[in-house]
Amino acid sequence: MTEPAGTETPQVVLAGVEKTYHSGRVAFPALRGVDLAVRAGEMVAIAGPSGSGKTTIVNLIAGIDRPSAGTVTVNGTRLDLLGEEQLAIWRRANIGMVFQFFQLMPTLSALDNTLLPMELAGRGSRRTRRAQASALLSSVGLASRGDRLPVELSGGEQQRVALARAMACRPRILIGDEPTGNLDSETAGQMFGLLTDLNAAGTTVIFVTHDQGLAALAQRVVTVRDGKIVSDANGTMPGGAPAGAPMGGQSR
Fold this sequence. Notes:
Elements: E1 12-23, E2 26-38, E3 43-47, H1 54-61, E4 69-74, E5 77-78, H2 84-94, E6 95-99, H3 110-121, H4 126-139, H5 155-166, E7 173-177, H6 185-200, E8 204-209, H7 212-215, E9 220-225, E10 228-234
Parallel strand pairs: 3-8, 3-9, 6-7, 7-8
Antiparallel strand pairs: 1-2, 1-4, 4-5, 9-10
């Protein structure tokens, strides 16, 4: 894994990472010696077919999963050395997650779903948290839908609530696991536009997709196959502007 001269320390570093899942006596290798580095402020697409290991990579970066071997360092912290409680605290402070199936609390309104991470983290007063949640819903075009339950929202609206919730604690890294996978093409385009806006404002965005067309819109496309990184290349940002140089080596 190499680093361009004159660049800052990467925000995310996976070094020699392996991950094996077990079902009884059967072992399923998901990652086979992955090396990856991501700079702060990058937008990176992790692409590849189903079962290639791409979701495992982002779960490791988010501290949701642990490596079987190798090290995972994010924002200067070795995640593979933290206990479960330490990981939960770290994750609330550093990571926002947008899942393919939204994972909203069905009995909470859009506003209360957005509030939830701030309440768990104990940030600010109740009034301050509600004001911030309202502002986040407004930023994703849902200012008038805060009182609606998830079942009363369209799929695109639910995904925008999920994005507002992911940004509630102002994370340094936003991770999306197939964030447009259940959306129609028009709504998916709108969702990607929101991710691009967040990235332009300085948030590192790392998202998983099996859609090569969507992946190509990112600054950088890391392609995974059979648990290994097989390519790491520039994408093209919306409007056709070429992205900056990629960073991070290929797995061998």
